[in-house]
Specification:
Layout: E1 5-9, H1 16-30, E2 37-41, H2 47-53, E3 59-63, H3 80-85, E4 90-93, H4 96-101, H5 106-119, E5 122-127, H6 131-135, H7 139-154, E6 163-166, H8 180-195, H9 199-204, E7 206-210, H10 218-222, E8 229-232, H11 239-254
Parallel strand pairs: 1-2, 1-8, 2-3, 3-4, 4-5, 5-6, 6-7, 7-8
Helix pairs in contact: 1-11, 5-7, 7-8
């Protein structure tokens, strides 16, 4: 049975003080919550502090990005081994903001996926369509293309012990969200797409929804059979809102 996962992507937000306060708030609010995996993805310079602050809790650590190189003359980059060395478990790759602002291609994202698998880290592969692509009826086409970049180079087995986060670009940070039925339809398509290659791999794959997830819409989203959790943006910066989303996932998936 798949275990729900709720992850907070802090993006370009944070400070030493904020990191300490937010983690303290999460530890307090989530101390009695069971049945849902929880991860946070602070900016890279706060990962070390966050690792210390979450010690002894069931909160795990994620990074927001990784380089395809392991070492060498690559100024400003962070390697998979470095992330692993400071306690990171998950790494977000292919986020639409990276694809848009840093021109990251499907091919580059697939290389990052491979590097993470080799390092024993868990990739969180972000996929999703823009508003124009959605209106043109290209949602499935875009999602399958972004998945196939990994599928066709690494094989379906690479998706064992990984996460795919479906984030419609038009819903990220806009306050808009896909309806639970819309989100479920795309999640089912993603799982079915993987199942064409290997049904067992598809069945264990964690599928998250992302895109203006908040404490108001979380329960309905998590009630859908193929939505296993959420990649949360803005709401992850507030301990009460993020905790409510985690609790909603735990309740929806575990009764």
């Amino acid at each position: 049975m798949r275990h729900p996962l709720v992850m907070g992507n802090w993006k370009l937000n944070g400070s030493k003080h904020m990191t300490a306060d937010l983690i303290a708030g999460l530890r307090n609010a989530l101390s009695s919550v069971d049945g849902c995996d929880v991860a946070i993805a602070p900016p890279v310079m706060y990962l070390g502090q966050a690792h210390q602050d979450i010690a002894g809790s069931h909160i795990t650590l994620s990074a927001q990005n990784v380089d395809i190189n392991l070492n060498g003359a690559f100024t400003g980059e962070i390697s998979a081994e470095m992330l692993k060395d400071i306690g990171v478990r998950y790494v977000i790759i292919g986020h639409s903001e990276r694809r848009t602002y840093h021109k990251e291609s499907d091919e580059l994202v697939a290389k990052k996926f491979a590097v993470l698998k080799d390092a024993g880290l868990i990739p969180v592969l972000c996929i999703g369509e823009t508003e124009a692509e959605n209106e043109a009826g290209k949602t499935k086409e875009v999602c399958s293309r972004q998945i196939d970049a990994v599928l066709n180079t690494l094989g379906v087995e690479a998706f064992n012990n990984t996460v795919i986060a479906y984030e419609p670009v038009w819903a990220i940070g806009t306050g808009k969200s896909a309806t639970p039925a819309q989100a479920q339809a795309v999640h089912k398509f993603i799982r079915d797409h993987i199942a064409k290659k290997n049904a067992a791999v598809a069945q264990q794959l964690i599928l998250q929804y992302g895109g203006s997830v908040n404490d108001k819409n979380a329960s309905e989203l998590f009630a859908q059979p193929d939505i296993d959790g959420a990649l949360v943006g803005g709401a992850s910066l507030k301990a009460d809102a993020f905790s409510a989303i985690v609790k909603a996932a735990a309740q929806a998936k575990n009764g």
